[in-house]
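Appendix B. One record, verbatim.
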Amino acid sequence: MENKEKIILPQGFEEMVRGVIGDSEWNAFVEALSAEPSVSVRINSQRSIVNGQQSIFNSQLSTVKWCEHGCYLSERPKFTYDPMFHAGGYYVQEASSMFVWQALKQYVEKDAVVLDMCAAPGGKSTAIAQYLSKDGFLVSNEYVPQRAHVLVENITKWGAPNCVVTNNAPRHFEKLKMKFDAILVDAPCSGEGMFRKDERAREEWSPANVEMCVERQREILESAWEVLKPDGVLIYSTCTFNSHENEEQVQWLIDEMGAEYLPIKIETDWMITETERGYRFLPHKTRGEGLFLAAVRKQCTIHNEKKANDRKEKKHKKENNSQLSTLNLLDGDFVVMECEGRYHAVQSLRADLVAECRKTLNVLAFGVQIFEQKGKDLIPQTALAMSQAYKRGAYPEVALSYEEAISFLRKEAIVLADAPRGFVLVTYSGLPLGWVKNIGNRCNNLYPEFWRIRN
């Protein structure tokens, strides 16, 4: 691993963290913080990626051992200029963060109802969506509005149809009638694990900031605990090293909330550091950035209550409009919900949960946005093109060259001389990118303005 200029650590950091790392390993730890970080991606298993057609996967790959879909790249490419990235073929994610896969795999059912409380930009949410079955359900939340819109983009590109994206404070979830089988709290933290990559994280760090983070984390955990079902699983993670934001928070859940600590099985060659109350990723041992993760269960003494996931499908009135039928657009059983001239397809099994979220929370995206009404026209939406449930062939398709794909992603006008007139799905390397409306001499580019490549 190539070394950079030696990192300058903030005052007070060594005193707080050296005891956690250990005196014998401190120098190796600091040296690792001065090295170049690794680059890793998680492949979208619901997309078909043709290796020979994208340069970023032509480099030698090595597997992330704790996540079956994760891999390291030998160098960092310019992801912005890879159409497969924009098509949701993979997510650029720190290898350490992929460890959430093990917590899910070992303790969460695939058809669970899951809340990601602090989700932006979406790495762990897309991992949850990838893990869940088609009958699972994910509420992906972000409190900061600007970050929440980035979350919508990443969830939409990933293509899972069984997700809701919200922009709420954690305490707002306490108003919900629904409870969750599992909750991930990837808590806002002091960011020590990002010191190697982020100079700003080093500049903003202080013992006082650590104390502030501890208080905020506990407020979030209290709200999460309130909406977690009895026998439900809470996964807690940070990207920091100090014990105040990590093991002490887990111990607080045990002492104050009666949580049961859940050990996660790991392999020796993963080089993950196990403590009494969690799992640490240290950069001088594990190939990835700093991370702490632990899982606990909300203990339940009542054994005769209703099964956590009631599979009864509730009946919902379908829109009486033949234009809005999803039968020829999506695989699965969906109902249509309208919101301000936009039409969303929602899985029938989870329509009641979506309705509850819309009633109680600030919902930014839900299900699959299929159409937007403009005058008499129904405009197909990018979420429809990207959805894993979309039935290919419902609209005409045209495969773009690399140069055409980049032009499309820049929201430039393109010409498709041999394509039929009307709405056309454009693809790259077999994956949908979005829609154009072919009017003959040119195409109206329907790619979202805020998503376009700007440089």
